Amino acid sequence: xxxxxxxxxxxxxxxxxxxxxxxxxxxxxxxxxxxxxxxxxxxxxxxxxxxxxxxxxxxxxxxxxxxxxxxxxxxxxxxxxxxxxxxxxxxxxxxxxxxxxxxxxxxxxxxxxxxxxxxxxxxxxxxxxxxxxxxxxxxxxxxxxxxxxxxxxxxxxxxxxxxxxxxxxxxxxx
Length: 174
Description:
- By secondary structure, the protein is mostly helical.
- The protein folds into 2 domains: 1-62, no CATH class; 64-174.
- It contains 10 helices and no strands.
- Helix 5 (50-62) packs across helix 7, helix 6 packs antiparallel against helix 7 and helix 6 (66-82) runs parallel beside helix 8 (113-128).
- The longest helix has 22 residues, at 89-110.
- It is globular and about 55 Å long.
- The N and C termini lie far apart (55 Å).
- Mean pLDDT is 86; it is low at 1-5.
């Protein structure tokens, strides 16, 4: 508020500048740009936020070979599980939630349901292989069961042949 006046009434153009454009409008503008300007915009996006850089990295370098991408994710998740503090259940829960956030972030970049099913199954296998019982913690039991549910939901969106291939790998709920 400026001098007791609402900002949007005094300066209506400021409110419209702060509202982001729709995806349709952005797509239209991007189609009009030349490749040099488009490259500048992509590089600026990459500098702005880590997630943007990770998404661009996936799209430019890793999207062509999804199996290699899955292999790299599995290796990273395995490393994170091996470095996890398992002595204290509190720190174990924090670490598991961190690993799950990491997994979800990289699954979002892929957008492939088959990759999602494979990685969530792998996450559940790693979770079951920990040296402590998941039943000791309600939080971990619920987290595991949510992952199983997400596996089933993603699996239902795949072709029947692929569903059949993964059906025997789907873990059961606790």
